[in-house]
Amino acid sequence: MTELNTSADIDYDPERDLDPEMHSYQLDPRLAKDCILLGQFSLCDLLLMNDANYPWFILVPRLADVTEIYHLSLENQQQLMLESSVLASNLADIFDADKMNVAALGNVVSQLHVHHVVRYQNDPAWPAPVWGHAAIKPYTQARIEALRERVNTLLIDCAEYQEAEYQELAP
Fold first, then answer.
1. Under DSSP, is residue 40 helix (H, G, I), strand (E, B) or coil?
2. N- to C-terminal Cα distance for the chain?
3. Contact criterion met (CB below 8 Å) for 58 and 49
4. What's the angle, vertex CA 49, arms to CA 45 and CA 54, rounded to 5?
5. Gap between the Cα atoms of 160 and 74, Å rounded
6. What's the pLDDT tens digit per position in 47-87?
7. Model confidence over 15-31: pLDDT tens digits?
8. How far apart are CA 38 and CA 27, in angstroms?
9. Three-state DSSP class for residue 167
10. What SS3 class is residue 43?
11. E strand intervals along 16-92
12. What is the pTM of this model?
């Protein structure tokens, strides 16, 4: 196997590191509207997409003005990959997935975020992408709490994960 040259010239530019006093992290308004915060890894927020058609989770690095993985420092790229792998592995086990779809697209929301969608061969969109296939079906508050408990119980011992404070859905 070829060894990765970690000193390779990638597009990460330390000048992109923003002064947190001037550029604080804020979750994109669309993600805030469409998702429920479940918890936090050391780098990323863990969100649940409020669409009961699919178990759909999103990792968002808590860094200001980042739109691409290669904009992250090498250390943060590695941390994102670790958190994504831990999440995907646990979700595949929790939900007995046929396939995990993991992707960072950013065509609609430019803020860097990584989708983790549990897929089944009998889900409404299989084998096509989930976007725009079925009408969004919001979770009930009871179902959100059940998912929160299920996911947080498994992740609490993983990769410096902490569950978020309880959030009621807005009416």
1. strand
2. 54
3. yes
4. 130
5. 19
6. 999 999 999 999 999 999 999 999 999 999 999 999 999 99
7. 555 444 546 899 999 99
8. 14
9. coil
10. coil
11. 35-40, 44-49, 56-61
12. 0.85
